């Protein structure tokens, strides 16, 4: 463990910055690829991405409400978070990661059905890479800030190239371009969400309270969005599909957010984002190849290769020397 890092309460003692947290992020990314397909299909069936997202998120929220308060570590973590907010160690906006998650999942429901999982995923890469680079440098999440090194910048730049290569064929019209820009913005939101949840998880000493708070805020944000739209005369879908499989995206999201909360403070927002997206691409290309819808192109495979190269460049120990910025702040205090 390098200088400027510390072991947060409740984190596994052996969970360092080695391959284990990176592998966890990759596995979480595979889950995100499946979630993207499920939420995209649900959005197409419902005819409204926001409503579909709220339905999926509500399934995960109900599971968390049933489990977290029953766990001693969950109750203790919620008390610690409440005390940290009252004492000023956490600001109210530290709990707003669910808003960013809602943006990402809404992007899934709106964009995936039109552009395909692979293009959606690689578009997210660009946003999350740039967002992760900036979050690591100027905040550091729940860990020490990390310098913008040549290797980290090259990794982020490679992801932007992957976005340009993979999305090139999809940018033929203004409507499709908007559907690709949306997941790029969602990628930035995911970087912010990872940093915020990592901060809350560090204070709670467990990922579960942060995950519950994330889902509560996400569900509230989506409900507010639907209420505002209805107030301006927007139509609401008449019914939701009856197939239970379509709603599993919310359950997958519980696991993904929990893993992110646990590992992001160990490997940083940028490396977490690249590892997560690498996992998404593993599943996304197979899903697009084996299910009805847009097929992955040569450009998509090129984007996959570039993204994996970016992960190696940003995460390899040889390129991580002296990347940590020494800071007088404690690992969980951060900017006020």
Automatic annotation (TrEMBL):
Signal peptide: none
InterPro entries: YdcZ
Pfam families xref list: DMT_YdcZ (PF04657)
Superkingdom of this protein's organism: Bacteria
Transmembrane segments: 20-38, 50-71, 92-111, 117-138, 150-171, 177-196, 208-232, 244-264, 269-290, 296-315
Keywords: Membrane, Transmembrane, Transmembrane helix
Name of the protein described by the UniProt record: Inner membrane protein
Organism the protein comes from: Amycolatopsis azurea DSM 43854
């Amino acid at each position: 463990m390098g200088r400027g890092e510390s072991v947060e309460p409740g984190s596994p003692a052996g969970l360092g910055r080695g391959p284990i947290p990176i592998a966890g992020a990759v596995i979480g990314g595979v889950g995100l690829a499946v979630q993207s397909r499920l939420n995209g299909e649900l959005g197409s069936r419902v005819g409204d991405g926001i409503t579909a997202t709220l339905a999926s998120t509500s399934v995960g929220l109900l599971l968390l409400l049933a489990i977290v308060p029953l766990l001693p570590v969950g109750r203790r973590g919620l008390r610690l978070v409440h005390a940290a907010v009252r004492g000023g160690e956490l600001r109210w906006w530290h709990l707003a990661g669910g808003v960013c998650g809602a943006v990402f999942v809404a992007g899934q429901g709106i964009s995936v059905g039109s552009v395909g999982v692979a293009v959606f995923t690689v578009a997210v890469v660009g946003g999350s890479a740039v967002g992760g680079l900036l979050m690591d440098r100027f905040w550091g999440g729940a860990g020490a800030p990390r310098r913008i090194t040549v290797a980290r910048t090259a990794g982020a730049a490679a992801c932007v190239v992957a976005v340009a290569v993979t999305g090139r064929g999809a940018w033929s019209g203004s409507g499709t371009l908007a559907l690709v820009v949306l997941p790029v913005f969602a990628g930035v939101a995911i970087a912010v969400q990872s940093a915020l949840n990592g901060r809350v998880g560090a204070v709670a000493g467990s990922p579960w309270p942060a995950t519950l708070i994330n889902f509560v805020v996400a569900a509230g944000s989506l409900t507010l969005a639907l209420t505002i739209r209805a107030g301006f005369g927007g139509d609401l879908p008449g019914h939701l599909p009856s197939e239970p499989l379509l709603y599993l995206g919310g359950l997958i999201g519980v696991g993904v957010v929990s893993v992110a909360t646990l590992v992001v403070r160990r490997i940083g927002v940028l490396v977490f984002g690249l590892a997560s997206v690498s996992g998404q691409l593993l599943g996304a290309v197979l899903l697009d190849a084996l299910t009805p819808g847009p097929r992955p192109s040569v450009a998509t495979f090129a984007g996959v290769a570039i993204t994996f190269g970016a992960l190696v460049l940003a995460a390899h120990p040889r390129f991580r020397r002296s990347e940590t910025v020494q800071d007088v702040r404690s690992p969980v205090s951060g900017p006020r």
